[in-house]
């Protein structure tokens, strides 16, 4: 028993000096391993009487359990100490300023679309939408665009491969679909992405367009002029905006016109709308062609109407003095900090 007491005392002494997991592992091997002090004591059991074996074996187990218990407690102590050290190393100084974050902004195009919708809703229009993948009928034929028209050519229009269809070149197809299902009076706008094979500083293969349509009895060109004047005045926030109407040609309207607004281009930094002596083309419009009305089942002898279309990117660039159309689609967050809303 005296030897076991000495082993126990030696263990307690050496355990008090353990300061890390390596030392703890070595200590466990010294007292409980295959060549440990306790194993040496167990080797003596073979030379003892059964009664002595029982007594010594009990004492050895008591010492062994004591060692295991204290090793386990020491391991927990070291684990807690290690955790405290890690937490201290990762401590947060609450007096430091917090981390900044990037705040999102509304894209200028989205802002323009929302603004246009609000203007036309106040004027009594409803907003409708349609598919971006169109068929020939709704994108061309129903709009009186004949088969030889340049817009139908591969270099202007994106045609689908392996399936029939094309990426719509304008939102006019939405108007055709609406007129096929609804009888006058009609007063709608449609907006969305459209696609044409073109790319430079003022054109992109994908852009946004808004078109308006009014169909009813005794609708005339004067109604069209009043509608456009009110829309442009509200959008550019110019009460007396000078406009110039020029005769033009569109297959789906007759007569057709293009509208210029007065502006000042004397400085390269910005275009001042409603000022100066320059003119700037802004949109196209006209009275709905009678063939278009017939194609959708509306009697042109009873109903008349007008339509107009405008590029949303163009309006956005003019209103917010954005010089290059392509920057609208590059996704540069620094640019959004300047032009976003």
TrEMBL record:
Its EC number is 6.1.1.20. PANTHER family: PHENYLALANINE--TRNA LIGASE, MITOCHONDRIAL, PHENYLALANYL-TRNA SYNTHETASE. Tetramer of two alpha and two beta subunits. One of its GO terms (biological process) is phenylalanyl-tRNA aminoacylation. Binds 2 magnesium ions per tetramer. It catalyses: tRNA(Phe) + L-phenylalanine + ATP = L-phenylalanyl-tRNA(Phe) + AMP + diphosphate + H(+). The lineage of its organism: Bacteria, Pseudomonadati, Pseudomonadota, Alphaproteobacteria, Rickettsiales. InterPro entries: aa-tRNA-synth_II, aa-tRNA-synth_II/BPL/LPL, Phe-tRNA_ligase_II_N, Phe_tRNA_ligase_alpha1_bac, Phenylalanyl-tRNA_Synthase, tRNA-bd_arm. Its cofactor is Mg(2+). It comes from Midichloria mitochondrii (strain IricVA). This is Phenylalanine--tRNA ligase alpha subunit. SUPFAM superfamilies: Class II aaRS and biotin synthetases, tRNA-binding arm. Belongs to the class-II aminoacyl-tRNA synthetase family. Phe-tRNA synthetase alpha subunit type 1 subfamily. Mg(2+) binds at residue 254. GO terms for cellular component: cytoplasm. Residues 116-330 form the Aminoacyl-transfer RNA synthetases class-II family profile domain.
């Amino acid at each position: 028993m005296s030897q076991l007491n000495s082993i126990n005392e030696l263990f307690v002494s050496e355990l008090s000096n353990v300061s890390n997991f390596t030392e703890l592992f070595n200590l466990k091997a010294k007292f409980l391993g295959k060549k440990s002090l306790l194993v040496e004591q167990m080797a003596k059991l073979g030379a003892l009487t059964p009664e002595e074996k029982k007594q010594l074996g009990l004492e050895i187990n008591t010492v062994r359990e004591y060692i295991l218990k204290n090793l386990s407690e020491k391991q927990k102590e070291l684990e807690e100490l290690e955790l405290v050290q890690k937490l201290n190393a990762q401590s947060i100084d609450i007096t430091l300023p917090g981390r900044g974050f990037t705040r999102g902004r509304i894209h200028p195009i989205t802002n323009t679309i929302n603004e246009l919708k609000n203007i036309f809703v106040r004027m009594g229009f409803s907003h409708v939408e349609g598919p971006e993948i169109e068929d020939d009928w709704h994108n061309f034929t129903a709009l009186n665009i004949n088969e030889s028209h340049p817009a139908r050519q591969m270099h202007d229009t994106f045609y689908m491969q392996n399936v029939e269809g094309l990426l719509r070149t304008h939102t006019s197809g939405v108007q055709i679909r609406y007129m096929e299902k609804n009888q006058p009076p009609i007063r709608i706008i449609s907006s969305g992405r459209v696609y044409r094979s073109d790319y430079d500083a003022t054109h992109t293969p994908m852009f946004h367009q808004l078109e308006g349509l009014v169909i009813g009895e005794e609708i005339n060109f004067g109604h069209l002029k009043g509608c456009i004047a009110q829309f442009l005045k509200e959008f550019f926030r110019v009460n007396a905006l000078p406009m110039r109407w020029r005769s033009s040609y569109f297959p789906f309207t007759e007569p057709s016109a293009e509208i210029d607004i007065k502006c000042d281009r004397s400085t390269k930094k910005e275009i001042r709308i409603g000022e100066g002596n320059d003119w700037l083309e802004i949109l196209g419009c006209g009275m709905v062609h009678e063939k278009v009305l017939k194609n959708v089942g509306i009697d042109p002898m009873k109903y008349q109407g007008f339509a107009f279309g405008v590029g949303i990117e163009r309006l956005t660039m003019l209103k917010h003095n954005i010089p290059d159309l392509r920057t609208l689609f590059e996704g540069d967050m620094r640019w959004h900090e300047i032009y976003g809303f």
